[in-house]
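step=encode ok
step=design start
structure_in=
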C-alpha cells in the first residue's frame, strides 16, 4: 500500500515504514505529524484518485529528528574588477518515518 502526499509544494510517494526528509519544522523528536493533502492511495482494492485531494484521508508520521542537507557553495565573480565573494548554505530538514496510511 502506498500514497502520494503533498507537503511544502512537493509531492512524495510514501509507504509505511519509509523515512522521508521534509522542510524544517520546529517539532521535537518523537512527536506525530499528520499530512492531510493525500492525492492518491493505492491498496488491495485498487487505486483511489483525489480531485485534487481525497477527503478524510491522512498519513501519519513520527519525527525522527532534524538533519542538514549537503553544503551548497555560492560564488560571485566579476571579471577584471578583483571582486570575488564566496559563501555557503546548508538547508535544514525534518526527518520523519511514515507510521500509517488511512483512507
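sequence_out=
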Amino acid at each position: 500500500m502506498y500514497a502520494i502526499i503533498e507537503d511544502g509544494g512537493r509531492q512524495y510517494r510514501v509507504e509505511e515504514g519509509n523515512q522521508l526528509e521534509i522542510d524544517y519544522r520546529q517539532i521535537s523528536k518523537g512527536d506525530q505529524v499528520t499530512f492531510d493533502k493525500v492525492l492518491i492511495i493505492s491498496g488491495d482494492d485498487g487505486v483511489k484518485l483525489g480531485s485534487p485531494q481525497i477527503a478524510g484521508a491522512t498519513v501519519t508520521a513520527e519525527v525522527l529528528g532534524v538533519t542538514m542537507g549537503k553544503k551548497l557553495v555560492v560564488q560571485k565573480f566579476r571579471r577584471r574588477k578583483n571582486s570575488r565573494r564566496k559563501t555557503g548554505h546548508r538547508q535544514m530538514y525534518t526527518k520523519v518515518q511514515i507510521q500509517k496510511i488511512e483512507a
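step=design ok
step=annotate ok -> The chain has a mean pLDDT of 95.
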